[in-house]
Design a protein that fits this description.
Layout lengths: L2 E5 L3 E3 L4 E8 L5 E9 L6 E7 L6 E3 L7 E5 L5 E6 L8 E9 L2 E4 L3 E6 L1
Parallel strand pairs: 2-11
Antiparallel strand pairs: 1-3, 3-8, 4-5, 4-9, 5-6, 7-8, 9-10, 9-11
Length: 117
C-alpha cells in the first residue's frame, strides 16, 4: 500500500518562502515520476513541478513558477521537496504531492499554502 503525505504548508507574506515536503511509504519499485500540483478555490488542479526518474532525472515547471520554485528529491525517491521562493498571492492554493507508479497515480491529502499581500 503506497501512502503519500505532504507537509509544510503555511500562511506567508508575499515575497516570502516556504518548503513543502512529501513523504512516500510502501513499495516504489515502479516509480517513474514525482510531482507537485495545486488547486486554488474554484479552479482546476494544475501541475506545478514534476521530476522524472530517468537517466537524467529531468525537472519541469509550470511557466507561472519557473525561476521561483524548485523541486528536488532524496536519493531513494522516498521524499520530494518543493522549495517556493518569492511567493505571490496567486500561489495561494492547496498543494498536492503526486507519485506515479506503473501509470497509476497516488495522491496525498494536500497542504494549504496561503500568501497574503
Amino acid at each position: 500500500q503506497v501512502q503519500v503525505v505532504e507537509s509544510g504548508g503555511d500562511l506567508v507574506q508575499a515575497g516570502g518562502s516556504l518548503k513543502l515536503s512529501c513523504e512516500v511509504s510502501g513499495s516504489i519499485v515502479t516509480l517513474s515520476a514525482m510531482g507537485w500540483f495545486r488547486q486554488a478555490p474554484g479552479k482546476q488542479r494544475e501541475l506545478v513541478a514534476v521530476i522524472t526518474k530517468s537517466a537524467r532525472s529531468t525537472a519541469n515547471y509550470a511557466d507561472s513558477v519557473r525561476g521561483r520554485f524548485s523541486i528536488s528529491r532524496t536519493g531513494a525517491w522516498k521524499t520530494s521537496y518543493l522549495q517556493m521562493n518569492d511567493l505571490k498571492p496567486e500561489d495561494t492554493a492547496v498543494y498536492y504531492c503526486n507519485v506515479r507508479l506503473s501509470n497509476q497515480d497516488y495522491w496525498g491529502q494536500g497542504t494549504q499554502v496561503t500568501v497574503s499581500s
